[in-house]
Amino acid sequence: MEEGRILVVEDQDAMRESLVIAFRDEGYQVDDAASGEDAIQKLQSNLVYDLVVTDLKMKKVDGLEVLKVAKTANPSTEVVLITAYGTISTAVQAIRDGAYDYVTKPFRHQEILKVAKKAIEKKSLKDRVRYLEGEIRDKYKFEGIVGNSNAILEVLKVTSNVSRTESIVLITGESGTGKELIARAIHYNSPRKDGPFVVINCGALPENLQESELFGHTKGAFTGAIRDKVGLFQQAQKGTIFLDEIGETLPSTQVKLLRFLQDGEIRPVGGNKPMYVDARIITATNENLEKAVEEGRFRKDLFYRINVIRIHLPPLKERREDIPLLVEYFLEIILDKLKRGKRVFSKEAMHAFTNYNWPGNIRELQNIIERAVALSKSEIINADELPIPINEFTSLSENPIDDKRKSYIVTTLAEQEKNAIIEALNKYGGNQTKVSQILGISTTTLWRKIKKYKIKPQHEIIDKPDN
User: Fold this and answer.
1) Same domain, 96 and 189
2) What is the per-residue pLDDT for 464?
3) If residue 233 lies in a helix (H) or strand (E), which one and from where to where?
4) Does 152 lie in the same domain as 119?
């Protein structure tokens, strides 16, 4: 039995009644409206609908007006339009205005039931994300940490718990997974939130200046030391110091870090007197510190000191369900940054995002989105506008590629693509405009693929581009 409340808006009695029966047979709660005016009254009442299924063409108040009122009443309500062939372009514009999808007359009940199920699932997911974001952001203020996968929610849970302590934290994960965001969340939700948060990338410090940058130096300590220098540890007094890529520290630096962790003492280069710093340490690494210890590159005693509470951030490929949320999050930020108008990624582009392995993780995803937006010339950004190799991971299937099957699917991607195009062309009578919209690609790209695969549709091709 399906769950969800649906409003069916249709001025043809027979069509409306058959849809109501079909939806109720699936277990949905269903209300109906015989006109746009009746629908608006219901939408503006206290009833909240998960989905509105409305005919596009109706007397006086049409489906577009119903769409606007539905989105005003409850932005998370999804809307599916029923349209005749001649009004497809209007339906496409409606999708840009917030509709979930459209179905063309005549259609089978199974077709609209499938679309309705996916629309309600999307609405449910958005509601859950909004609830979780509100709960987590209001309670913990974890800015920039986006996702609702079990993996990321567990990270947030541990992060919130450790924030209230003074424990040393080691954050592990591949480059670009957001280790600094977690460190910031810990600091700004801790009792030290009013103190400084000092970030140090140990891998970026020159080896000959590593100790000087961290612990400071006295005048004349070495050639070029023309005055006393305050180190980064001193700057973190009463706050938090975040040592990113701690595995890149020199053995001599590791000795001084160990001394600080034992008794809070640092000694500037060239100095004779110890200084005491009250700062919390958070460390991070993208390498295997256990292996570094075995190889003698990292002190075992220091490793035990920093490995008190470990938070591991999984790579993006292991939390693919978070990718659509991350895309939406970064897209909003980047559009504001670049002062661009509305942009959306096509279904094909979103499949490519979801299927790609993202070796650069979240940082790479953010950079690719910014590149796509900056170079985009239209509102819809298609997969062929994404850089190689991301656009090679386009999948026309409904579900993300399973890692265990990836090698097989990638090798047969061309065959899948060809079959999908043939099926769509045959289903829509060879209409390339309709097919390109369904597949999320431009008509020019579709025509190029038809020529590439030497496809001969059963129907005459409509809207054939000029050569």
Assistant:
1) no
2) 45
3) helix 232-235
4) no
Query: Do 341 and 373 form a contact (C-beta atoms < 8 A)?
Result: no
* Pair 220, 112 in one domain: no
Domain count, the chain: 3
Q: Where are the alpha helices (DSSP H) in 26-108?
A: 36-43, 63-73, 88-96
Confidence band, pLDDT 50/70/90 cuts, at residue 143: low
Indicate if 290 and 154 belong to the same structural domain. yes
Q: What is the pLDDT of residues 225-253, one digit of tens each?
A: 778 888 899 999 999 999 999 999 999 99
Residue 411: exposed, middle, or buried by beta-carbon count in 10 A (0-12, 13-18, 19+)? exposed
**What pLDDT is attached to residue 1?**
55
Among residues 263, 297, 314, the one where a domain terminates is: 314
Q: Which two tokens stand for residue 212?
A: 């000087």
Sign of CA dihedral 130, 133, 136, 139: negative
Q: Which two tokens stand for residue 164?
A: 């209230």
- The CATH number linked to 407 is 1.10.8.60
State the average pLDDT over residues 120-147.
Answer: 67
- CA 149 – CA 152 distance, rounded (Å): 6
Is residue 142 one of the residues assigned to a domain? no
Report the pLDDT value the prediction gives residue 134, as an integer from 0 to 100: 55
CATH number at residue 190: 3.40.50.300
Residue range(s) defining the domain that contains residue 360: 339-453
pLDDT tens-digit series, residues 434-449: 777 767 677 777 887 8
- Residue 132: per-residue pLDDT: 60
Strand residues in 145-264 grouped as ranges (E): 169-172, 197-201, 240-244
**CA 148 – CA 97 distance, rounded (Å):** 26
Q: pLDDT tens-digit profile of 197-222? A: 999 999 888 888 898 899 988 888 78
- 309 and 344 co-located in one domain: no
